[in-house]
Specification:
Length: about 260
Amino acid sequence: MTATDGGGAGNEAGAPGRGWEEIAPGVVRRRLSGWDETVGAVSGPGGTLLVDAGPSLAAGAALRAQLAERGWPPVRWLAVTHPHFDHLLGAGAFADAEVLAAAGRRPPWTRGDAEVAGDAVAQGVDRAAAERSAAALPEPGRLVADRLTLPLGGGRAAELVSLGAAHSGHDLVVAVRDGGAEPSVVFCGDLVEESGEPQAGSDAEPARWPAALDRLLALGGERAAYVPGHGAVVDAAFVRAQRAALARRFGVPDG
Ligand SMILES: [Zn+2]
């Protein structure tokens, strides 16, 4: 398996819109063009786990086709790191998968979600496409209140951990473990951003964000590759520095 595909010769691995990037054996991600959001995929004998689904039904369908072209097993699970349009609205292309999301004070989204569709339109998505994508949203099959271990087969497991509310009301991270070892890869959603300052919108709970990153670091440890919602793959030191910057930015005292 090559480190990247889907891009032309000479494209930089991991750059926005440049094809799939292999982070560990059977663990890939792609930075989509447009909003530079990451979509991840983890393969196991039991099926493929997709992490986020892109900004529209069409983007989701394209991801599905790309994974099939790579010869990956069908997407059996879709973990949504948080219900912002750029990570969620492709989910309708995976309506036959089990959809997992973080529990919160209210449902993470609803079928036909007008708020999510409206955000997409405000960010430049065509209104008809946004509404079609929202109308196709599958209901979550399981909501993760704390932690859920998904066996992917062959000794590989994905641990889904709810760390919200912080960046959004429903922040879910996904750690990939092989044979009970330390996680090799952690998909962080937008709790971590590398390509710019982390975005805090109206659904963010900034006061809880630094503590969420403490839990993220405890989950991933020192050696995992941390995959941000936007930007290049980072390490534990980067996450620790971002935690300190967020605490300063939001005036959150230590401890
Ligand atoms: Zn977000």
